[in-house]
Amino acid sequence: MEVPLLEVLLYTDGSVTRILERFFEEVTIDPLETRKLKVEGREARLLGVPDGDTVYVRRVVIKVDGRPAILATSLARPDNLPGRLRRLVLQSRKPLGKMIEELRLETRREILRVEEARPSPEDEEILGVSAPKIPWREYLVYHRRTPMLLIRERFNPEVLGREG
Fold first, then answer.
1. Each residue's pLDDT tens digit, 27-76
2. Residue 108 CB burial class (10 angstroms; 0-12, 13-18, ≥19)
3. Which of 7, 59, 113, 131 satisfies CB 3.0 to 4.6 Å to 138 for a cystine?
4. For the whole model, what pTM was predicted?
């Protein structure tokens, strides 16, 4: 049985970048923004912080062979990021999974949602999608049994396989 690449990416609890590197010649990370944000409601609950707590936001586009494939938004809980990772999250162009691997951190990922949605104007602009729906997922990365990262990835089905 052959499993489409997009399905593997949506349901993996491993490194998306590492999977992409097996299928494409070039995988690059283009940072869009890094900033601090006060979280409330669902995001605060998922990260295990009080409403109004400040987290880091990191938004990147993952490109494969020069084409935008994934728009990723990460919310990082600073108090659960080891010191070196805290600096890297704010400054590095490396994928988060590679940073975690290089620092030899023991982590666990929990996929919360895998869905399809209409692409937003931002998705259309950044990912260059024209599909009526695009797949996306949301997951938590735990370190020391505590949420460290909340990540949302929006996938370009025109680059990764399944047309929306």
1. 999 999 989 999 999 999 999 999 999 999 999 999 999 999 999 999 99
2. exposed
3. 113
4. 0.89
The CA distance from 160 to 164, in Å, is: 11
| 2-35 pLDDT per residue, tens | 558 999 999 888 788 889 999 999 999 999 998 9
Q: Of the candidates 120, 115, 126, which has an alpha carbon nearest to the alpha carbon of residue 30?
A: 126
- Helix/strand/coil (H/E/C) assignment for every residue in the chain: CCCCHHHHHHHCCCCHHHHHHHHCCCEEEEEEEEEEEEECHHHHHHHCCCCCEEEEEEEEEEEECCEEEEEEEEEECHHHCCHHHHHHHHHCCCCHHHHHHHCCCCEEEEEEEEEEECCCHHHHHHHCCCCCCEEEEEEEEEECCEEEEEEEEEECHHHHCCCC
Which own/partner pairs from 106-111 qualify as long-range (CB within 8 Å, at least 24 positions apart)? 106/143, 107/141, 107/142, 107/143, 107/148, 108/13, 108/141, 108/142, 109/13, 109/14, 109/139, 109/140, 109/141, 109/142, 110/13, 110/139, 110/140, 110/142, 111/11, 111/13, 111/137, 111/138, 111/139
